[in-house]
Specification:
OB fold (Dihydrolipoamide Acetyltransferase, E2P), Rossmann fold, 31% strand, 10 helices, seven-stranded mixed beta sheet, 3 domains, binds S-adenosylmethionine, alpha/beta
Length: 399
């Protein structure tokens, strides 16, 4: 069936209409005139599969990635990067208006950096000696020999693993942002484990640490941080600095005496933005993150800090006299208890870092009776995927 793709949905899928029913077609772009096959028919929508492009969208480019068609790791290798940025900025504006009743004029122009060779982490899955990503179309594993998103140091390890017999079930490869240090956590048999051990700085093999160290030192801008294979760390090796600088400038303007860093990961944002005499409190539910956060606070000789390994919702009502809160929750956003306690705590400033504009819009709408939204800054932190990161800066009304 021949259709013209009208626009992209929030998950980066092309949209067209067939007999007034909306139809989602992954890997198509606005302006594509294409032949599609309907693969799912629901009451309110259809799902189509691209068969052949008849006339190309003006935004279409050739993808040089050999795995793009079936790997499922990225969605936009076939799209002009300028159009990807435009799409993400418009998506944030649309979501803010629709789910947050927030004027699009508050959303600033999107910021972006390099679109390839940026990721400092990859997780590959394996079965029966095949190592790669889960397919976008099934639960099969698509063998991945090269990935255009990862740093060269990670690519080197991927190629190394492929060149020896293995039955790996999962492998996480991470490197420091300057590519000096590499960490690998590998599950399942690998024939050349001692060769691999010599190649990397941290090796966790079937849950056991075989190297002297279990963490590596990496940096965001000029600030160094420890991280382990299982700890959270922002994946964009260069552009994370710009994201953190946005929060840092806000903190410098507000000059808080106490910062509460919720969902703090390895403590990175809180430590990055802390001024010399700031007290820092961090909360994260992952023990590996908290052990690294404490190490990172020691590394930077912070004068006053405390980290809690717990869910934010279990601790949030224990804090008082906080004037600056950073929240950086997972995609689901803030839970209702955390939002309610923030509305009683009323810190004078909140920096909200979000990887999901829909939950961000919902939470901002809820906080907006007490807070003025100064700005929402989108960052293209995950190029070639439909994901977008935002920083919203909030100031207490009448403070
Ligand atoms: C997007 S990451 C933010 C990490 C950190 N702010 C950074 O910039 O590296 C979200 C973090 O929330 C943590 N997390 C998830 N659910 C949580 C919860 N209910 N309470 C506390 N931490 C949680 C995860 O362990 C993860 O470190």
């Amino acid at each position: 069936m021949d259709v013209i793709i009208e626009k992209l949905d929030h998950f980066g899928r092309g949209i067209c209409h067939i007999d007034q029913k909306i139809c989602f077609v992954p890997y198509t772009l606005p302006g594509d005139y294409c032949d599609i096959r309907i693969i799912r028919e629901k009451k309110s929508f259809l799902e189509g599969c691209l068969q052949k492009i008849i006339n190309e969208s003006p935004y279409r480019i050739h993808s040089s990635c050999p795995h793009f068609d079936h790997c499922g790791g990225c969605q936009f290798q076939n799209m002009m990067f300028s159009y990807e940025n435009q799409y993400k900025e418009e998506k944030v504006k649309e979501i803010m208006e629709r789910f947050g009743e927030i004027s699009p004029s508050i959303v600033r122009p999107i910021l972006f950096s390099n679109s390839s060779l940026y990721r400092n982490k990859i997780v590959l899955h394996g079965k029966d000696g095949v190592l790669g990503f889960y397919s976008s179309k099934s639960h099969d594993i698509v063998p991945i020999h090269e990935c255009h998103l990862v740093l060269p140091k990670i690519q080197e390890i991927i190629s190394f693993l492929h060149s020896y017999p293995h039955d790996i079930s999962e492998v996480t490869i991470k490197c420091s942002n300057d590519q000096k240090y590499v960490m690998v956590s590998l599950n399942g048999p690998f024939s050349e484990i001692s060769l691999l051990k010599d190649k990397v700085d941290v090796l966790i093999y079937n849950g056991k640490c075989l190297s002297r160290e279990s963490s590596i030192l990496t940096s965001i801008g000029n600030v160094s941080f420890y991280q382990e294979p299982s700890s959270f760390f922002q994946v964009h090796s260069q552009f994370t600095k710009d994201l953190y600088d946005e929060v840092s400038r806000f903190a410098q303007r507000k000059r808080p005496s106490t910062i509460l860093d919720l969902y703090c990961g390895c403590g990175t944002i809180g430590i990055y933005v802390s001024l010399s005499n700031t007290s820092l409190i961090g909360v994260d539910s992952n023990p590996s993150n908290i052990s690294q956060a404490i190490r990172n606070a020691e590394l930077h000789s912070l004068s006053s800090y405390h980290y809690y390994c717990d869910k934010v919702e279990n601790r949030i009502d224990e804090f008082s006299n906080i004037d600056f809160v950073i929240v950086d929750p997972p995609r689901a956003g803030l839970d209702s208890k955390t939002r309610d306690v923030l509305k009683v705590m009323l810190p004078s400033s909140i920096a909200y870092v979000s990887c999901d504009p829909v939950s961000l819009a919902r939470d901002l709408k809820d906080l907006s009776s007490y807070y003025q939204i100064e700005s929402i800054q989108p960052f293209n932190l995950f190029p070639r995927t439909y994901h977008v990161e935002c920083v919203a800066l909030l100031s207490l009304k009448n403070s």
